[in-house]
Amino acid sequence: MKLNDFIFEYESNTRYPGLCRIRTFINNKNELYVVFTDLDIKNPSASVTNDLEKIYYGLMNNGFITQKYKVIEHYEHIDVFLSLGDAKFGEFSLVELKAGDMTLWHRCNVKQILEFLDVKEEEFLNKTWNDWRHINTIEQKRTRIYPFLDYGFNENIEVIRRRLELEDNKLNKVQISELISNKSAEKDFLDLLKKDLTIFAEVYASPPEEYICFSEFPIGDGGRVDFALFSSRSRMDVTLIEIKGAEFELMVNNGGYYTFSKKMEIAISQIKARSGYVHRNYSEFRKYVHQVRQEVEGGNRLYNSLIGPKGNLLVDPNKDINIRYIVIGGRTNDDLRESWKRHEYECSNNPPMHIETWNSFIRRMSRS
Questions:
Q1: Is 9 helix (H, G, I), strand (E, B) or coil?
Q2: Exposed/middle/buried for 70, CB within 10 Å: 0-12, 13-18, 19+?
């Protein structure tokens, strides 16, 4: 038989007090039990397992239980996929509290628990989240503990300001789609994309808001790439991007043999030349890109640089860098055949190089 059923607030070693559901029972043998039910995400503190002793002695000090009570720990399953068969009742453990941090947990099945407590299945089928009395009490206690528990993390004001500023200047996907539809030349793409370098960060930066973008980025051999992107943590990712227009299709059929179009071959040869210099002068190039990064982070706007909302990159200038090469150009005609061709080329090329059409590139964009 159930004696009590209430939400209990307990002291914890964490920032906030904890909340759990307490039920007390007496069975037909006059044995006393107390069930501690964890409230999962609605518990603002440590779990009942971590604070079990504090809950137990808190209940004793407030006169809810005595030393005669045996303790059962209970976790309800909120996830529907975990609520099948006996799992729908949750997980139970009979707890032995011993001095000197020697508490022991003994897993029990629901049949054993129902026998201990002398109750029906409905006692544990009726979840805490289906009981409005408990829901109201939980929300009231959470509000009293701290009214902004569910408010979320307050970001740095400068990060928010920078994000809003970049958002205000964003191009939309339609503007790029129009260039593709109009079979626009390389210059038209360059003129548009230089206005919003976040397009490349959106597709290639990781973590998403930690990046520095450049246009007309010098490599060191007298040549340049159309765009460059610095991102990642610890080891910096350097992504070098060469583009062409959309006035041609990616592949041409030469008597049954499909090859890249001439303009795409030109773009590939251009970035191959850049990659050749980079890998022949790797140590020098690594120092160079970190020097550029540090100058931009210090406030110098080099090569039309654009720094992401999170500001300075958390990278180590003493570590190796990851270098990636991207070529974007042309229009998609036969997506499957082109995908095979691009994959075949990318796998056979060393160093690796990634090839996109403008159609495949905009599919990667999350903006509307």
A1: strand
A2: middle
Residues with Cβ < 8 Å from 263, sequence gap 6 or more?
244, 245, 247, 248, 329, 330
The full length of the chain comes to: 368
Domains of the chain: 2-145 (no CATH), 161-363 (3.40.91)
Task: Please give the distance of CA 6 from its chain centroid, rounded to a whole number.
Answer: 37
3-state SS, residue 147: coil
Determine if the peptide bond prior to 309 is cis (ω within 30°): no
Residue 325 has pLDDT above 60, yes or no: yes
Of the pLDDT bands very low, low, confident and very high (cuts 50, 70, 90), residue 86 is low
Angle of CA points 37, 111, 7, to nearest 5° = 15
Are 60 and 67 within 8 A, CB to CB? yes
What number of other Cβ atoms are within 10 A of residue 9's Cβ? 19
Residue pair 86/109 in contact (Cβ under 8 Å)? The answer is yes
Q: What is the tens place of the pLDDT at every residue in 154-190? A: 888 999 999 999 999 999 999 999 999 999 999 999 9
Q: Enumerate the H helices of 169-298 as residue ranges.
A: 173-181, 186-193, 198-204, 262-280, 282-297
pTM as predicted: 0.71
